[in-house]
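Just scan this pair:

***
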Amino acid sequence: MAAVLCDVDGTLVDTTYLHTVCWWQALVEGGYRVAGTQIREAIGMGADQLLPHLLGHEIDPDEAHRLSARHDALLRPYWDQLQPTAGAAELLRACARKGLTVVLATSAKQEELDALRRAIGADDAITAATTADDVSTSKPSPDLVQHALDLARVPASEAVFIGDAVWDVAAAHRAGVRCVALTCGGTTADDLRRAGADEVYTDPAQLTTALGTSSLGNPRS
């Protein structure tokens, strides 16, 4: 058995810039001034990592919870308008047809994950999914990837992680998993390669076309 572990935001659903704007607004309301470009580059981290990364210091847990809750509230009105990235559903179904176990690896809360899965529209191909409640430390910590491996019931050597951010690459490699990266989340191919991505594609559609010759063609190699 082999598995493909998929990041969701930015990778399978076009949400990178929605998250950027919602974090920007939450931080402004909280009295913090952080450039939008800095926020966009941090998307892919969970709030536990993103906030100290952006602010340059540890933040009071109550304040972090308040900012995170405000971000979530700002994002919620967009849930019914979410759009998948090009070829997202087709990629997951192509992986399932190859006999790969498909696990979504995300730090989204359950209700948000439900909205993301509706946007993707490929639940028939998905075996399991992580949520924010499953780990205490988000990417670039490897904990989320390790939990996804546990759900897939495969060792790291028999899995491939698909993500769109340098944080995905870092988390996957720290868990001993190869990472196929996509630029559809807004991170450049050069930045993803510098982070150590094993392969880089434009979006799920391009990866599906190259499936047979990609790492997903032989996740055990």
In short: The mean pLDDT is 95. The first helix runs from residue 16 to 29. Strands lie at 3-6, 101-104, 128-129, 159-163, 178-182, 199-201.
